[in-house]
Write a structure and sequence with these properties.
Blueprint: E1 3-5, E2 10-18, H1 25-35, E3 45-48, E4 54-67, E5 70-78, H2 86-92, E6 98-104, H3 110-125, E7 136-141, H4 151-158, E8 166-168, H5 178-195
Parallel strand pairs: 2-5, 2-6, 6-7, 7-8
Antiparallel strand pairs: 1-2, 3-4, 4-5
Bound molecules: guanosine-5'-triphosphate and magnesium ion (MG).
Length: about 200
């Protein structure tokens, strides 16, 4: 749910990067953080464990231009992918405006991708939300792995009806990182335009 701050003439949106453990969600945010000029971004907050995995979330406010004279501020969050952090994941989805699902191309993560998507649908249900009602795109990450599964196979599992735009990526090398963010932001702004 976007929030409008009239005095600051600012609209705030919340984008959540979802996906299984170690699929590259934090890597996406770090790459975005590094590329965005400092005047357009806030501080990146990362609550990580000692092994660098996200314990709670990463957060990055991003200024992506104006709509009707209002500044748009996108707040980027990643969830912790590991199965046992579900209460954090659920909490982070509160008030979500758009979702980027980061899938892992490794053969042994195909099932984890599917389970994470199922978990996403379940957690959205708690807020009475359906995935198809929310601006949503898929990033198929780690395309550089020598044994990466064919993209079609991953899409067949995650989006058999081809309803969702998907992007190939090597987030670690900043390939295919901005495209899904741009796509989901566009969907979020279109949805806002429909409401007003
Ligand atoms: N080969 C390859 N490795 C990647 C790519 N993107 C990220 N990684 C690596 O995958 C590992 C996990 O990346 P993270 O960004 O921490 O994954 P995450 O999804 O935030 O993981 P959790 O917070 O535990 O859910 C790190 O070692 C990254 O360097 C990629 O495109 N290709
Ligand atoms: Mg992480």
């Amino acid at each position: 749910m976007s929030t409008i701050n009239f005095s600051a003439r600012e609209i705030n949106f919340k984008i959540v990067y979802y996906g299984p453990g170690l699929s590259g969600k934090t890597t996406n945010l770090k790459q975005i953080y590094d590329q965005v000029p400092s005047e357009s971004k806030g501080e990146m907050v990362s609550l990580a464990t000692e092994d660098e995995r996200t314990l709670f979330f990463d957060f990055l406010p991003l200024d992506l231009g104006k709509v009707n004279g209002f500044k748009t501020r996108f707040h980027l969050y990643t969830v912790p992918g590991q199965v046992f952090y579900n209460s954090s994941r659920k909490l982070i989805l509160r008030g979500v405006d758009g979702i980027v699902f980061v899938a892992d191309s490794a053969p042994n993560r195909l099932r984890a991708n599917a389970e994470s998507l199922r978990n996403l649908r379940e957690n959205l249900q708690e807020y009475n939300l359906r995935l198809h009602e929310i601006p949503y795109v898929i990033q198929i990450n780690k395309r550089d792995l020598p044994d990466a599964l064919p993209t079609d196979m991953i899409r067949q599992v995650l989006d058999p009806e081809h309803r969702t735009e998907s992007f190939e990526a090597v987030a670690a090398e900043f390939q295919g990182v901005f495209e899904p963010l741009r796509a989901v932001s566009k969907l979020v702004l279109e949805k806002l335009a429909q409401k007003t």
